[in-house]
Design brief:
Blueprint: H1 11-14, H2 17-20, H3 35-40, H4 51-59, H5 70-85, E1 92-100, E2 107-120, E3 125-128, E4 133-135, E5 139-143
Antiparallel strand pairs: 1-2, 1-5, 2-3, 3-4
Length: 152
């Protein structure tokens, strides 16, 4: 059979037989590249820096703020007034409130338990002993042991 030797190699594969066994060439003029730099040539390249972070941010879910009706707002208002009158006792509460997202529209609802430190009437905020600050306008519900047995 023409073009194939007894080992099944074609004539094309034998054309490099003369250089296969020769030693690897080392330049006398140029120093070898360090292995770390050689590996860096093949490191992945991020052409769109920050694109992955932008995609994650877009995919992150946020909730819309719940709009309370007038009755629910009135209940929260009465309960806050009741708690303000007893602020010196530092009442314990459980408050559910909306936390607006800083980066995009919407936010998340959170429930926190704690002891009231003080009311900031000027900024319309409620401060708890643990440092939590709750915007009164973002309150969705408020509970306290002080409300038991009282019609509020």
């Amino acid at each position: 059979m023409k073009g194939v030797n007894r080992y099944g190699q074609s004539d094309k594969s034998r054309r490099y037989d003369d250089i296969l066994k020769r030693p690897h060439h080392r330049s006398l003029k140029h120093p070898s590249m360090p292995m770390l730099d050689r590996a860096a040539q093949f490191a992945p390249f991020a052409a769109l820096t920050g694109h992955g972070d932008a995609l994650k941010e877009t995919a992150r879910l946020t909730d819309r703020k719940i709009d309370l009706d007038e009755n629910e707002k009135a209940v929260i208002d009465r309960r806050l007034r009741f708690l303000r009158e007893r602020a010196g006792q530092h009442p314990h509460i459980a408050a559910t409130y909306f936390i607006p997202d800083r980066k995009k529209e919407g936010g998340a609802c959170a429930t926190v338990s704690g002891t009231i430190k003080r009311f900031n009437e000027h900024e319309r905020k409620l401060l708890l002993m643990d440092g939590t600050v709750i915007a009164i306008d973002d309150l969705l519900a408020i509970e306290s042991p002080l409300f038991r047995g009282v019609d509020i």
